Structures are given as structure tokens and as C-alpha cells.
UniProtKB/TrEMBL annotation:
InterPro entries: Dynamin_N (IPR045063), P-loop_NTPase (IPR027417), TRAFAC_Dynamin-like_GTPase (IPR051943). The lineage of its organism: Bacteria, Bacillati, Bacillota, Clostridia, Peptostreptococcales. PANTHER family: SARCALUMENIN (PTHR43681:SF1), TRANSMEMBRANE GTPASE FZO (PTHR43681). This is Small GTP-binding protein. It comes from Aminicella lysinilytica. Residues 49-205 form the Dynamin N-terminal domain.
Amino acid sequence: MLSKPIKEMTILEKTNMAYDLMKDDDAVKGQAAQVETLLEKLKSEDITVAVIGQFKRGKSALANRILGDDVLPVGIVPITSAVTKVRYGKRQAEVHYENGVVEPVEFERLHEFISEQENSNNELGVQSVELKTPSKFLKNGLTFVDTPGVGSYHKNNTEVAYEHMKESDAVIFLLSVDSPINQIEIDFLKNTKEFAAKFYFAVNKIDVVSEAELKAYTDYCGMLLKQLMGKDDVRLFPVSAKTGQGIDDLKDAVLRDCKKNTREIMEASTAKKLADVINSAATQLDFYWSAMNLEYKELDKRFAAINKTLEDVRSKADACEGNFDVHLNEYKLMLSETVKDLFGMEYHYEIDTVRYGVIDMDREDFLKNVDDLCDDLTKTLDRILLYREENAYTVCHRINAINRLSRNLRRIRDSLTGERR
């Protein structure tokens, strides 16, 4: 029984409650991991500030100006094709791959991994690039993020930008005087405001227009942004990433808010993100019900396909002669994708970090881990889908548990969305 009504709980208490509800249910294991991340960020007050917007607005050049360090490559063609995270510390660069490998690289080589020309459609499988620099802007613990631009020819860039906007707590939304706000930017802004709690609207390239032209542009944009954001206190920051004009005003505003209003920003951001994760969990449970209610003939067919995949994994593992940590991560990704294809369900695996050039696993451990991975997937799918389960009590207990989980998660979500109206 709850100690107090949900509507009286703090954001931290609601987030804890959502995690406790989901953490032991395999059907929403992925969403539980997301909520756990929200909890960690909320407790540590680790604010993520992202620069986002349409391609070729000058995001990377602006980021370099804000950081006071030319750490991000810039160019006349779309450069940023992967998320780049920057934190405070001794200057270093690492490439994080989707398969868990982390490779240290020289700053001069970054374009090889985040340039659309050199890593087209992310053929290298880069998950993110993580940099450290002793920038005063980052000294108090901010994580600064440069994202791919939306709306370019490269569809992958837009998809990455949309996915990462969900992680941002505060956003520098970059516009440019050489183009009025367009529908691509409007749609992106509408989506972004569902996740980020604080917005700073920067208008770039002011060095190429007159004061009269700038005023006309900012008056028009200000009016439109007030309508889109549903508030009257929208402020625009005219800047030039080329000359540095206006950068200090933008930096000061971000740092002032992140210092004085950290808790407020993090709670508002967490509330938005938690509501989205709960919606995702509800969708996942719908897919779960659909899969669980398949006819036995269809379930037999799909379980046979899973078993064939598991045989292939074991066969590949037997043939492996090295890079065991990497291969184990790749099998996790493959099995997760297979479950999604066959049952429409997200199956969450933790992808272990593999430091470039470091060997942590021998062949014997690798083969045992592969066997455990395969056995665990079979048992979990049998359990959550009640495959061939004949015990009526077990079936009823599972159905009641899912109904109870759905009901409690909806109560938390409704309390969050009610607060935001």
C-alpha cells in the first residue's frame, strides 16, 4: 500500500516507484534500464546541454566557440553524423562503437568517424564520440552535446538527432539569419520540447546582415517561437560562430540557469522523459499481449526460428578464435534484433564496454557466456510468453501481474502529464 497518493509524490519518488514496478519484469526490462538512468542523472544533477537544429546552421562551429576549444571538426558539407559528447577533463577523444568497443583516437582523426563523407550512413557502427577538454564552460559538471543536423539528404543523421533529443535536459536550438524558420525546424522543435526542460534560441551568422535585417528576423522568429512554445518569455540570442559576437551572453545565460536552477531543470526534464518511457513500456506490453495470444501453431513457428538463431550463435561461437568480448556483444545485438523481428518485443541486453586492445575474456569463459546467453533467452521467452504453459494458476498469476503493472504505470504517467498541462 502506498504511503501517500501519487499526486503528492516528488519526481524522484515517482521515478523510484516506476523503476521498482518495472525492474523485475522481463517484458519491460529495457524501459527499466532507462528509468534507472533517469534516477542516476536526477540524483547526481548531471545536466546534459545539447546543440540541435537543422543541418548547416553552424552547430559544431558554435559548440567550439562556447567551449573555447576547436575540438569539433567543421566543414562546408554536413560533418556531424554521430552524437558527440563533451565533458570536462584532460584533452582526449574516444570513439564508442555500437558493439561496445571503445577506441582512443587523435582529435585530428575525428572527421573519419563523424563525417558523413567518410562514414556514410554510419557504416563504421559508431554509437557516439566522447571528448574531454578543460573548458571552463564544463567545469561544474555539464555534459555538452553536438548532434547531427536534421533535414539533410542523409536520413541516418536525422534519425540520430531525433533519438538523442530525448536525452537532453537543456537545449540550444540553433537558427540562422540566412533562412527563415521552416517546417523541418518547427517539427523538430515540437518533438524536442516534449523532452527538454529549458531552451535557448540562438540565431547564428549575424555578421552577414545589417542591424535592421537582424531586427526584422528576430521579431518574426520571436513571434513564431512564442506560439510554438506556448509562452511569452522566449529569448533569442543573436550570435556569430565565426566572429564570436554574442557568444558570451549565451554562455552566461546557460551557466547561470544550470547553477541556480539545476534541480528545477532536472525535475522538469525527468518528468517529461519518464512519461515517455512509461508510454514506451505500455506499447511494449501491448506487443507482449499480442505475442502471448498467438496461436500455438504460429508460436511454434517463431520459437523454431529463435532456436535456429541460437544454434547459429553457438556455431559461430565455436568457430571464434579471438575478440571474444566483442563477439559476445554482437550476439546480444543479433538476438535482440531477432526477438524484435519475431515477436515485436524489445529484448534488452547490457552491452559491455570493451577497451580497444584489452583482452578480458578467454575462450572457455566466452563459450560458457554464450551458452548462458542462449539458455537465458529460451527460458525467459518461455516464461513471459507462457509458451506451452498448462498450469492455470501460473497463467492467471501472470495475467494479473501484467494488468497490475499496466494500471500502476498509467497512474504515474497520468500524474506526470497532468502536472505538465
